[in-house]
Amino acid sequence: MNFNCLRYSRATMLKSTFNPLFCELFPKSKFPKLTPHVITNAFTSCTPHVRQNVSTKHTIDLAPTSAYIHLPFCRKRCHYCDFPIVALGSASTEIDDDPRVINYIQLLCREINAMKVNINDKMPLETVFFGGGTPSLVPAQLVLLVLEALSGKFGVSEDAEISMEMDPGTFDARKMEEMMKLGVNRVSLGVQAFQEKLLRACGRAHGVEEVNESIGIVKSCGVENWSIDLISSLPHQTTDMWEETLRLAIDAQPTHVSVYDLQIEQGTKFGTQYTPGEFPLPSETQSAEFYKMASRMLSDANYNHYEISSYSKSGYECKHNSTYWKNKPFYGFGLGSASFVGGLRFSRPKKVNEYMKFVQDLENGLLNCSGNDQIGIKDTAMDVVMLSLRTSLGLDLKSFEESFGSSIVSSLLETYKPYVESGHVVCLDEKRRAIGEGDLNTCLLQDENNQERKVAYIRLTDPEGFLLSNELISLAFEVMDSYDFCSPLQEAA
């Protein structure tokens, strides 16, 4: 699953420990809605007073090398889904001549072609992610049009990771081979569960038989890099069901597994039927046990738990999603998609008619990213802490200190000291060796005496620290919210 297409804000993230991220990576105020006369230089010369990448300096000067493409078509809307989609009907599998699909693809290509890009900064794309919706419903010849538009506008690296979300029952071997010929080399298979009862309860358009068929197709066609997406904490889901789902997923031998905890969103069918934590949904304790079970079983099967919701075999981490975790810039195209370009994040309209007007305004030169939605240094720091602590690599304190000063790093270490003692947080030296509780006290004393910092990284433990990530990230937010940020040069002065 690609995170660009998932609803997200800091508040949303802190509702749940391991909920899925990103349709809007940050609060709505930081994804300004693009309107005429507010957006003239969207992809050329934005001011430097907006959110920058703190893990790599001066992100505002970097050209994106990743693109997310939103293909919103589905056979039907799942009961938990609040993504921007267009439901074509449960029987829809071949949509070659559907005018809704053809018109949308043409509009999408117009948006790509209308982008204003500084030719001196343009870089070939290293990752492309087709998300949705159900991209595997879209005919290969239409996907080709999008790839040609991207290639003509930016270029696409020969070894680019090109991912596509595919749902069981929406493709056969012929279509899989057609997609591979276009360059699709990574598949994200939306299985969600291996029980017929749970799939029906979620409103999924496929059943277990189609799940098994689709796994067979992916493997027989020789797709080396593929993921299975699963959802835990579904209505009436038991521990035995979840254990079976994990076991069958492992038996299928994908190179990547994504595990998401169900989120009940307003406006969805589940949102009107259920209350989180109340039967037939699992309790918070049961949901935590599901998470621990996934961590244990997948780790035992040699999957690396590299991000809160993501597991992979060695070398098969999703390169595209890593763009988000590393806070690197990226393009987004299509209905409701989000971009991070020139230091500014913004999202496109979620309704088709509004998106059509957006593309027309973009073509007419009426859009630009300047305005009053600039983001300060405090929000930047919060973003980096939040994103970094969701990964197994954790927070790079040296980079953080270079961007925000040493005082805030010392405050964070002091705040997390009790959680180092409880085993929820690990401090690491430059060689990523764990620093014990006693050594941490010495390190903190050295910091006070302006000696060289010995703690180079902090990360959350798996699974206990990840399960407490809400609270731990909230604590960091509290520290930063009360902190008077200044640049390292100002701090030294």
Automatic annotation (TrEMBL):
Alphabetized GO MF terms: 4 iron, 4 sulfur cluster binding; coproporphyrinogen oxidase activity
Gene3D superfamilies: tm_1862 like domain
Domain Radical SAM core positions: 59-301
Superkingdom classification of source: Eukaryota
Family matches, as Pfam families: Radical_SAM
Cellular component annotations (GO), alphabetically ordered: cytoplasm
A biological process term (GO) from this entry: porphyrin-containing compound biosynthetic process
Membership in a protein family: Belongs to the anaerobic coproporphyrinogen-III oxidase family. HemW subfamily.
Known role: May be a heme chaperone, appears to bind heme. Homologous bacterial proteins do not have oxygen-independent coproporphyrinogen-III oxidase activity. Binds 1 [4Fe-4S] cluster. The cluster is coordinated with 3 cysteines and an exchangeable S-adenosyl-L-methionine.
Protein name in UniProt: Radical S-adenosyl methionine domain-containing protein 1, mitochondrial
Phylogenetic lineage: Eukaryota, Viridiplantae, Streptophyta, Embryophyta, Tracheophyta
